[in-house]
Write the structure tokens for this entry.
Amino acid sequence: MSKMTDEGHRPEDPLGGIPPEFFQDRSLLVVANGVVNAGVVNGGQRYTKVAEAAADEMTAPTRQGPVRSQDLRRARRVFVPPSGHAEGLGALESGLLLLVGAQGTGRRTAALNMLAHGHEKPALVQLDGHTDLVNWRPAPDGVHGYLVMDPADPRALRPWDLANLEQRVTGAGARLVIVLVEEPGLVRALRREHGLPVFRHVPPDPRDVFTAHLTELCPDPGERERRMKALGFDVLSGLLPAELPPGHAVSVAEAVVRSAPEGEPCPGSVTSALAEAEAAELLAVSEEDTEALTLLLSVCAHSGLETSTVMDRAGALRHLLVTGPNPDAVSTVLPRRLQPGVLRRIRTRPVTTPHGDERVELLWPAVAEAVWDLVCGEHPELLPSLHRWLAMTAEGDEEISQAARVLSGLAARTGGRTLTLMGDVVVPLAPSGPGVAARCLANGLRHTEAGAVARQVLGEWSMAAEPALRTAVAHACGWAGEALASEDVLELLQRVVDRSDTVETPTCAAVVTALARLFSAGGPEDRRTYVRRLIAWSRGEDVVGRLATRASSALLHADPAWFGEQLRSDGEDADAVLELLVRALNEARSFYAMRDALLGWCSATEQGLTPRPPLEKLFARLVDTRQPGALRLLLSIERSGDATPGRDLAERALAAWHSKNVSKEGTS
């Protein structure tokens, strides 16, 4: 049967294209649905119409083209064979080889060198990964090798398909290498199901690649040795970890030569140049891949944490970027754990600690700082989410400090502008928020440009109605150290406490902790300033006065030896110290804290850690004050067990107290 068509007749006229002689005997014609049979008919006629294939179901044209000459020259110029390269060449003699390896490990370079092996001027062709290899045909001649990178579905090729493909390629006098991405179980499945040679690509040692390319770029052995010595063994080892892709090892060699054409390479300039280029590439790759972006930022922020923790926190950041600044949604929806395959896309390496914990880190740690540089300069829209995320995920003192260091670095890069975002960090749904904000602000005080903004934020928050903001100020003052003058610190802390209704609050507790920390780290003059200000506060009847009496015991506990030195001076400092201690003993809410601090001082004296004379002088002067809090202290110690520290001093002081009472009665 045949379907007759002609440009001069309409398709609906099935007899229009038949020669006239056929009309002489119409019994010879059978017409059915546009199909004409002009032959002899025996029996009935059956017509089957097959629908034409839809346009989108048609086989796409094969996309292929010659490998660029410059790419081939680059691949062959300084080639360091991977492990088992000779075995791979032997297997390729059959005409077909499946090469399996991780992306970015030099798979294409290895495949091109295999196909070009034995040819001075090889003619190589690369096929698109979506090529239908079942129906593809090689050129009759003139091509030495064909390369297919990452076919869409390698498991769809059946053994007979590959056998036919192998015959066609060898018949054309060529060879074919199909490069596949390594997946769990892929190599075993291909070998078991297809029985074809599968070459597992293991990249060469990056140090060998570096040496080969450095030799090519710098042929003089003396010059190479001088440059490597100037760079330093430790720096070079850090730039060439075992997991480094070959292309990156080439970049290290180029950076060593390019960094100082006529002088000695500076280790810092080499490292920073490589880190900047790597960070730019990683962010460019991650811009369209939210998983890769969030994992990259998580690795940069949480270096040293377990891999599972880094990935979980990357999932939290991804969730935050999707849902926006909605704290309820962020806190109530568990983040989805990212897939381990993403780790390869951002070029990390696994690290196992001596305790068996699994960690993840970037191949070049310096890339993390370069990533933050680019985020501040080119992706400022990420900064608000990064602040909320770091405060939300920090757990424990060490992680809070780590999150604060990252945020402080962002503040330094932006001249302190990001410190204004810290208010969103201090929220009830993030218990670690005040701690993160406090350390970030304290760190910001030490930077020239960010310091002014940090002082402004602390001033505004110290008078805020929200207790969390004032708590953050208290913690920040405690961590500020020499970055804030003692008078400035005391002014901020007084404003923080003025807004409190009672001393029994986390904010006031943070103020006490800050004062004790500042007192411990302060110099002699700073310590005198703190004591004098606490005495002035303690004379009031408000919340500030009650806080001062509570804080005095914390200062005594921090350094009793200093208090002893002041008591021995017999001057204004001794009177100030005594007044501070007695006021705390007279206050019912602060009595027990001061008593415990004094017992601790007595214990340290009995152990020989502090001298005894200052303590004896203190108990003698307590008798002279005739204050009820002093008497309550002496009676409390005297009535306790024999092993109580300072019991002998208390008994002697009580005897002196009684003696003075008797003397007064006799005089009267």
Notes: The mean pLDDT is 84. Residues 647-667 form the longest helix (21 residues).
